[in-house]
Specification:
The chain is about 10% helix and about 45% strand. The protein has two helices and 18 strands.
Length: about 250
């Protein structure tokens, strides 16, 4: 029933967007009047011993200032009624220029989707599959995943990538002097994720950085190169990079 309601709402919202697009062709509205919502990324920040987790979800949204509220709709526990948590605006922008919103919530289930309420409800539910713990966002091809607490002088890296090319190179670039100098470590394939993201399968790649002397100044980012066409995708945490404390807390 929940999926049916979301499907109906999505169809209704799509009709609104289609009407706006038609109106745009005759000059009656501007392109900025067409709302949109997509997943930017998600991550698990806490994992309890009894199965409870805290998730942080980043949403990319167009025109929230004009239209209404944005929230994450999530399953608190299997078989229980879904709940909502309102997302708040950050200072970040997506590469499309959309505003980035953020929401955190605790649950015993992996499932969530996004909603943009501007009178009608516009849903993003990953083509009916919903999202889970670590799902890549729309138009995003690589994302760092929080890992376990590293040993002294080392850091365990985990990257989630979109499987858009058979031959690929996934690397972590790191530095201890704000990238005046930098080093590179090749990551290796770990496993396939169980749930596709926007139609594409996703993979987890892993590696370990060794010989870190200054954990306070340690920073890193990820690169993902598709060998066939030579394109390179980067995750640098909105230009802030990742640091030694980017780990998952365990209860």
């Amino acid at each position: 029933m929940k999926l049916l309601k979301k499907l109906i709402s999505t169809i209704a919202a799509a009709s609104i967007v289609a009407t706006s697009l038609f109106s745009l062709s005759v000059g009656t509205v501007s392109a900025t009047t067409i709302p949109d919502i997509r997943l930017q990324s998600s991550e698990v920040t806490y994992q309890g011993s009894r199965g409870n987790t805290i998730r942080t979800v980043y949403l990319k949204v167009k025109d929230t200032e004009k239209y209404g509220k944005v929230y994450v709709h999530y399953e608190y526990a299997p078989g229980m009624e879904w709940q909502d948590v309102t997302a708040t605006k950050t200072s970040f922008k997506s590469k499309e220029g959309y505003s980035i919103y953020k929401a955190s919530f605790s649950s015993y289930s992996n499932n969530f989707c996004l909603c943009y309420d501007f009178g009608s409800k516009l849903w993003d539910n990953n083509y009916g599959r919903d999202f889970d713990d670590m799902t890549l966002g729309y138009n995003e091809n690589v994302k760092a995943e929080r890992t376990n607490v590293p040993a002294s002088g080392t850091y365990n890296v985990s990257a989630i990538i979109r499987n858009i090319s058979y031959a690929k190179e996934v690397k972590v670039v790191w530095s201890e002097d704000n990238f005046k100098t930098k080093k590179t470590v090749n990551l290796k394939y770990g496993n396939m994720l169980s749930r596709p993201s926007y139609g594409n399968s996703c993979e987890r790649w892993k590696g370990t950085i060794k010989g870190i002397k200054n954990t306070k100044n340690f920073k890193f980012y990820l690169t993902y190169k598709t060998v066939a066409d030579g394109k390179t995708y980067t995750d640098n945490n909105f230009g802030q990079y990742y640091n030694y404390n980017y780990t998952i807390t365990r209860g």
